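Running low. Got one?
___
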Amino acid sequence: MGADVLRRVVEHLSGLDNAPASGNVDVADLCRRLAEPPPDTGTPLDQLLDPLFNEWVGHSFTTTGPGYMAYVPGGGLYPSGLAEFIAATTNRFTGVWQAAPALVQLEANVLSWLAEWMGYPTSARGLLTSGGSMANFSAIVTAREHHLGERLRDGVLYTSTHAHHCVAKSARLAGILGDRVRVIGVDEHCRMDVSELADAIADDFDEGLRPFMVVSSAGTTNTGAVDPLEAIGDLCEARGLWHHVDGAYGACFHMVPELRPLLAGLPRTDSVALDPHKGMFLPYGTGALIVRDGELLRAAHAGHADYLPDLNAEFYDPSQYTPELSRPYRGLGLWLPLKLYGAAKFRAALAEKRELALFAAEALSRVSGIVLDAPPQLSLLAFHLTWPGASTMEENEATDALLARVLQRQRVMLTGCQVDGRHLARICVLSFRTRRRHVQNAVDDVAAAAAALRAERGVVA
């Protein structure tokens, strides 16, 4: 069974370079046919794997492919997949240290490496999560416990109009209701407006409320913007607020010494969420939270029961730092590829993605009709299509059409977004499989679509 699965996986991965950037996902009828009652009798493995690999997997975005530059790519490193297979089949319980001490220590090692790469002190502790949403949730819970205690209704949290939607959602789940979440505007570079933030905090203090947390972004989803972390850190320090950074997309770039100025101020923050399934190219389902003062993380999440073993204060115990007890063993999926390849290769890969994004931005700036709205602060850029006399509505329709035509060619997949009523196309370079030729394909396809759409509107190039 293992050999059959492995063969099919390797065949699938071997064909990614020539695979379409996205399969047909308009398959509602197929999904209706797939709905079925519980099976009473078994089915041979090959009869299950055949449709899985030959049909169902293909009806999806090719997120593992080199042409996937939509949303925020990951890639899915193969050794991490092997690690997940080992973790699932050995099936050891890693919720408490005593049940699998050596395996939990490997996870503790990984968390300490992440903390070091973020510039955090040795007092930092963390947890591995399913992704950035859960990491942000635990960060808000930790800050809430530290600053508010039982006075939840007085607490106020601040974030920006370009923050990921999970911030407001996590705040609600953590007991911070919507009327206590302040959404701060952004500047011309789509970064949080620190002056507006300062005024909002001052107003809430004057109203007798308890401002307790600012959630900034190290790489927004729409434009890849990095908030002014230093200035926000100064404000939070002066006013006594917790400064958390949602770095799900961008925090891993701090691993690269020469790119750290792009994230200046990150090491000063109280906590940071990051997604190794983005910035470290791992399979989906690997997020992380690192908290500068590990004792505050523990205080917010610790618990005990008579049926649990006694704690050993010397060692990291996941149950004391996470909302989970039973949990998948996520640590091996990071530990194995990091040990196998070494951190230097990850740093080199991240630096390459940044260079490829700069290359794409420079090349698109020379394409007639393309306006670069958000040059890459990290590895994401956003742009729109225009021509003389075009209205915003016409530009929006043309930019949407451009994206559709690029996808129609099936060499690359791009996605768009809306910023202040303007439709933008985005290129995000972050897959380890994406090389210069794939980015050139993206530029060429955008240029061809732009020329065709302008010609259809009677615009002379």
